[in-house]
Amino acid sequence: MSGRGAPGCSRGLQLALLLVPLLVLGVLPRARAFEEQPGSAHGESQGFQVVTFKWHHVQEPYIIALWILVASLAKIGFHLSHKVTSVVPESALLIVLGLVLGGIVWAADHIASFTLTPTAFFFYLLPPIVLDAGYFMPNRLFFGNLGTILLYAVIGTVWNAATTGLSLYGVFCSGLMGDLNIGLLDFLLFGSLIAAVDPVAVLAVFEEVHVNEVLFIIVFGESLLNDAVTVVLYNVFESFVTLGGDKVTGVDCVKGIVSFFVVSLGGTLVGVIFAFLLSLVTRFTKHVRIIEPGFVFIISYLSYLTSEMLSLSAILAITFCGICCQKYVKANISEQSATTVRYTMKMLASGAETIIFMFLGISAVNPLIWKWNTAFVLLTLVFISVYRAIGVVLQTWVLNRYRMVQLEIIDQVVMSYGGLRGAVAFALVVLLDEKKVKERNLFVSTTIIVVFFTVIFQGLTIKPLVQWLKVKRSEHREPKLNEKLHGRAFDHILSAIEDISGQIGHNYLRDKWSNFDRKFLSKILMRKSAQKSRDRILNVFHELNLKDAISYVAEGERRGSLAFIRSPSTDNMVNVDFSTPRPSTVEASVSYLLRENVSAVCLDMQSLEQRRRSIRDTEDMVTHHTLQQYLYKPRQEYKHLYSRHELTPNEDEKQDKEIFHRTMRKRLESFKSAKLGIGQNKKAAKLYKRERAQKRRNSSIPNGKLPLESPVHNFTINEKDLELSDPEEAPDYGAEAGGGIEFLANITQDATATDSPSGIDNPVFSPDEDLGILSRVPPWLSPGETVVPSQRARVQIPCSPGNFHRLAPFRLSTKSVDSFLQADGPEEQPHTTLPESTHM
Amino acid sequence: MHPVGFSAEPAPPKIGLSTSLPTQGIFRAAHPPPLAFSSDQIEQLHRRFKQLSGDQPTIRKENFNNVPDLELNPIRSKIVRAFFDNRNLRKGSSGLADEINFEDFLTIMSYFRPIDTTMDEEQVQLCRKEKLRFLFHMYDSDSDGRITLEEYRNVVEELLSGNPHIEKESARSIADGAMMEAASVCVGQMEPDQVYEGITFDDFLKIWQGIDIETKMHVRFLNMETIALCH
């Protein structure tokens, strides 16, 4: 969705894309007409036909599929031009497209054959969107602002409905609207359906605006939770209208209020129950990984249907189902399933959204539903905007007395302006029965105008408005480990302070809830293995490691050398940290794979460097080439096999874990010594440097000539370098591993004592080790060959070293490069940078 | 990287408070206005203080054992310690007090006051720094002005001790990772023989840059009904 396409080209494409639906639509009616004849001729038996044209047979799904295709293609079309989509929200574009298509259909058919029916909307299009919203709801933010959200959702919606309806009625009584067959209850009914802020529209517009998260969650949360109010108000007034105004008693009103609580709490309860069920089910899906994602959708959808069946708030049900289950489901299902769920959900939601907006446009092209009453339409527009603003200001005034984070005037403006109406209102108004509500068509047309106005006009202008008002934007930051840790510490401190000062506050409640969750809920709803890894801090750590690793691998791939990524000798090296929390390789095969990539990453970098270098050094190149040809293969095959059986490395698991523990311990040790023994370190570093310098002077044999000389030697070095000095490992990987490792050693021989992928255990960090390492360095290894992303290599790496801070060491330097270069003789390659080698 | 000791930092302003204020009128803090409490809040806190101390004029560490909810807190000891930390009490650059009186209690509590909307940018910054300093002191248990790896690990281990499944080793590696992150954020590139010795307060501020601490680190000292409902 970047504006890559040249404007001219994109315009052409857009035109083409617009033409496609035209053609399709042009064909369809004809096809239908054509289809009639065989249908009538069907009675006579014509014998066996080789080819039959059975349009009727496929008509409905075919048309649906075509429409989805058209909508999706249109989306592609919009995004060809970055300019357009950055100014005009997609929802507005889709509505316009819908209007155009609707016009074409009308021109061809003269009946509005395609409209957004309430059934399709409520049963198929709305649930995915709301589920997506619930499942990816930032829970903490949501519950942190729940009070505010509820106030806006309940009081705000009632206020909007009442004031809009009453004001319209007032104007109607004044006679400004002319002669309409409308009563007070009809107006209130209309008010109630037009009052609710629409989640689909809000999401569509606000996602592109990027306001700060608090503002977003308030508007968005309101739009989700006001459904209960809307449903109740709508049902109540509809039944009142059916009853007739004079027959409504006080009891009915009380019933209405009671039903609000039943509908909202009941819907929430249904959602929570289904969330519980869903979490419980996913706990036991270990052996049916493939259908695991299906459960998420099916059970959530069932929660929606169930509460619809019980005439409770279905939106609330599915929202809360998503909100409550997300934590447990995400912990239970495998990573592939989680990815599947994520993408499927996003795809369904955004597809549904696309279709909704397009069909809103199409549905508007139907002269039969249009009934124009200027005063009514305009006044509705005015009233909903004005009362929304007034309501927001009043409620915020109350709220700000209790809120920690005050809602400023600017926020209030955005909130008022962001009160978009959408497809929910449209579907509700279409549901009205013309026999009961005499002016249904007026309501429908007004609703369409309101929806179009809010989505198109306000959607268009909200972005400039937000910019102009300088609303605090949301900043997308990478998750930081420190941030998470401090945040956690914070939560504990705050709850402790509340405990000490004897307050029962937000933190207190959160603390109690998390204790309850840990003690009971998680135990019931989470797998044993998941319980271990569910800690957020670990997750962030995990994520960060993965990110680093992936960028390393990507970099390696970009440079065309992944040869060394899959080297088991480095398994469990770098990323070991989360093999403890995620011990089951069976479960997390993706992560396992990734982890493997991760762990070998540094090797990859080395090899890259080596490659670049060897281009200069022909002799080297030839040797390495030979090595690669002859020695790498077995390893690769082994690796390939290994990853194919990614789900059954059980027997290796124990060993892997063992290795992990050992390397981890070592790593920590070295880190510790580096951290604490400062003086010692410096001494070691100096010593190391000196030795290195000496060696540099001594070594005159170019390394490329001797790579085959002593595999054993190389192997030990490699082992040492990579801190994989576990004795078990070499035998474990056996003969086939030997070649690869040896080769690696050769490739990275220059790494001598210096390269350590984990970045911590370089000689300087582990002074006790480096003498030993150095003594093992064969003299023929020219120190100039020390491989690590050199200065230049580092510059070429798109991601700055800072991004790799968890894998990369924190002792990166630039200065010493120069001194090193000066010190080196002619054999020194210009791009080698020894000092860094100490850290990578 | 220039480590800055705490002695070099200007001493935090002390809340102006005469000894027997608790029950009289508005509690006026001369210096950082955001840290002022209203008389209601002081009364309430005073009641709580007496409850904790058992009607004694001072609170000792043991008194905190009487708070049952605190027991589940993984970093309980660190928090309680913070109450007796001379640096937080503004009584010195290191060491722990044996007991604290109500005034000290209020001083500690004042770190958790929400930030007033009427404050200007400078005051907000000051307030922010104060809050962060409190946090920093909690990490820096030996008062040497930096959070060393060992100290950091300590905190992380305690933080994660609530989860029995997390092994000590993973907690440590997380601390290590965080430390590396901190180093890369604060120092960037380092000399090969340079060792990142620990997070100084300046570094700490850098790490917290962009994190909205003002809106996070506060407890509402009000009646509980309102709190339960709203944020």
TrEMBL record, chain A:
Residues 68-468 form the Cation/H+ exchanger transmembrane domain. Keywords: Antiport, Cell membrane, Endosome, Ion transport, Membrane, Phosphoprotein, Signal, Sodium, Sodium transport, Transmembrane, Transmembrane helix, Transport. GO terms for biological process: potassium ion transmembrane transport; regulation of intracellular pH; sodium ion import across plasma membrane. One of its GO terms (cellular component) is extracellular exosome. InterPro entries: Cation/H_exchanger_CPA1, Cation/H_exchanger_TM, Na/H_exchanger_3/5, NaH_exchanger, Reg_factor_effector_dom_sf. It is a multi-pass membrane protein. Residues 831-840 have a biased composition (Polar residues). Pfam families: Na_H_Exchanger. Residues 691-711, 818-840 are annotated as: Disordered. One of its GO terms (molecular function) is identical protein binding. It catalyses: Na(+)(in) + H(+)(out) = Na(+)(out) + H(+)(in). Its main location: membrane. The keyword Thylakoid does not apply. Gene3D superfamilies: 6.10.140.1330. It is found in: Apical cell membrane; Early endosome membrane; Recycling endosome membrane. Residues 1-33 form the signal peptide. The chain crosses the membrane at residues 62-80, 92-108, 120-137, 149-172, 184-206, 213-237, 257-281, 350-370, 376-397, 409-430, 442-462. Belongs to the monovalent cation:proton antiporter 1 (CPA1) transporter (TC 2.A.36) family. Plasma membrane Na(+)/H(+) antiporter. Exchanges intracellular H(+) ions for extracellular Na(+) in 1:1 stoichiometry, playing a key role in salt and fluid absorption and pH homeostasis. Major apical Na(+)/H(+) exchanger in kidney and intestine playing an important role in renal and intestine Na(+) absorption and blood pressure regulation. This is Sodium/hydrogen exchanger. The gene is SLC9A3.
From TrEMBL, chain B:
One of its GO terms (molecular function) is magnesium ion binding. One of its GO terms (cellular component) is cytoplasm. InterPro entries: CHP3, EF-hand-dom_pair, EF_Hand_1_Ca_BS, EF_hand_dom. Gene3D superfamilies: EF-hand. Keywords: Calcium, Cell membrane, Cell projection, Cytoplasm, Differentiation, Lipoprotein, Membrane, Metal-binding, Myristate, Nucleus, Protein kinase inhibitor. It is a lipid-anchor. The keyword Cytoplasm applies. Monomer. Homodimer; disulfide-linked. Interacts with SLC9A1/NHE1; the interaction enables an optimal Na(+)/H(+) exchange activity. This is Calcineurin B homologous protein 3. The lineage of its organism: Eukaryota, Metazoa, Chordata, Craniata, Vertebrata. The gene is TESC.
